[in-house]
Amino acid sequence: MTVKKILSAIFVLSGVIVGFVSCNGPKVYNSCEGSVWATSYHITYRSSRVLDDSIIEVMRRVEMSLSPFADSSLVSRINRNETAVTDSLFRRIFIASQQVNRMSGGCYDPTVAPLVNLWGFGYKKVAVEPRQEQIDSALRLVGIGRCVLDGDRIKKLDPSTEFDFSSITKGYACDLIGEMLRRNGCSDYLVEIGGEVAVSGKNPQGEKWRIMIDAPVENDTSVVHKRLSVIAVTDCGVATSGNYRNFKKTSSGKTWHTISPSTGRPARSTTLSATVIAPDAMMADALATACMAMPLADAMRMIESLPHTEALLVTASSSGYEKHATGGFPETEVGTARK
Predict the structure, then answer these.
(1) Per residue in 165-211, pLDDT tens?
(2) How many CB atoms lie within 10 A of CB 251?
(3) pLDDT band at residue 224, thresholds of 50, 70 and 90?
(4) Which of 59, 123, 141, 209 gets the most CB atoms within 10 Å of its CB?
(5) Are 248 and 255 within 8 A, CB to CB?
(6) 157 CB neighbour count, 10 Å cutoff
(7) CA-CA distance, 15 to 227, in Å (whole number)?
(8) What is the DSSP letter of 285?
(9) 160 CB contacts (<8 Å, ≥6 apart)?
C-alpha cells in the first residue's frame, strides 16, 4: 500500500477514468490505492493526516459482513443458516435492496444468488450451462420480498434462500469510506472501488470531480477504454453497470452476467451499459444493475421518478450504440478527463 502526494496522475478504472492534479495548502491531496475483492480501488482525499489504515479497516469490515466469497463472513453464515442475527451493514444494505426491488418491479433482487451461481458468475463456480430443471429449482428460492427483518434478525420464508449483495456492496463500501473520511474532517474526496464512485467537495483544481464514462466497447481478451462522455459531479455517487465485459461463452453463445429474477436466465435487453448518478454510491450501484435487467422505457421511467437521480443508458443499434440520458444528466463535451 502506498500513500503519496498527488503531483499528476490519471487513473484508468472499471467503467470510469478520473484525472486530477495537486494544489498547495495546509491540507494535501493524498492517494491510497490497491486491490480488493478481485478489483482495484483508488481513493483521493484532502487531509493533513494519512488515513490509509482507516480506509483498509472499513473495507475489512465490509468484507467480513457482506462478501459471499469470504466463507466466514456474516452473509455466508446467514446463507448457510448458521445465524440469523444481522449487523448494521447487513441491515442497511438489505433495506436498500428491498427498496430497489420494489422500484424496479422485481427486476433487481439479490436473492438471485443461486441462479448467478448456476450460470458461473457467483461465489460457486459452475463449469457447465445449467439445465432447465436446475433453473426452475433455483427460481423457487428467489424473492427478497419474502425475507423480513425482525429487529436485528433476518427471517427467510425458505431456509435455502441465499443473498448475494455484490451488485450493491462496492457502492456501499465507497459510501462507508466517505463517511469515515468526513468523521476525520475530510470533505474533499473521491472514493472509487471497481468503477463505483463516491465524490464530495472539490478536486485538487478547486472544481467538481470529472469522471469519464467508457463506451461499451466489447473485447474478448482485454479491457478497452474509449470515451463515451465526461461528467463533472460532486456530493453524489456514480455507478456503471454493463454486460459488455462480464460474460462467458456457452453452447448457446455469449452469456451475460445480469440474470433475470423472473426467468432465471441472462436478462435479454438491448441495453449495453447503464450509468447512474444518485445521492449515494450504494443506490447508484443497485439502480445501475436494475436498469440492465429492465426494458429501456421502464428503466428511464424509474430513474426519472427518483429525486436527485440521473442516468445515461446505452443501447445497441444498427450503427453501433445510442445514448439515452435523463434530463438532468450532466454530460460535458470535453476531450479527456483533466490531467
Answers:
(1) 999 999 999 999 999 999 999 999 999 999 999 999 999 999 999 99
(2) 7
(3) very low
(4) 209
(5) yes
(6) 11
(7) 10
(8) H
(9) 114, 141
Strand partners, 36: 39
Please give the Cα distance from 69 to 107 (Å, whole number). Answer: 23
Look at residue 132 and give its three-state secondary structure: helix
The grid coordinates listed for 67 are 462478501
User: 330 by DSSP, 3-state: which?
Assistant: coil
The Cα-based distances of 177 to 15, 168, 239 in angstroms read 20, 15, 16
Residue 207, helix vs strand vs coil: coil
Q: What is the pLDDT of residues 244-276, one digit of tens each?
A: 555 455 555 444 457 877 777 877 778 889 999
Instruction: Decide: residue 45, CB within 10 A, 0-12 exposed, 13-18 middle, 19+ buried.
Output: buried
| Amino acid in the structure at residue 53 | D
pTM of this structure: 0.85
If you ran DSSP here, which 8-state letter would residue 157 be given? S
Question: Which secondary-structure segment (H or E) carries 212?
Answer: strand 209-214
Which is nearest to 165 in space by CA: 91, 81, 238? 91
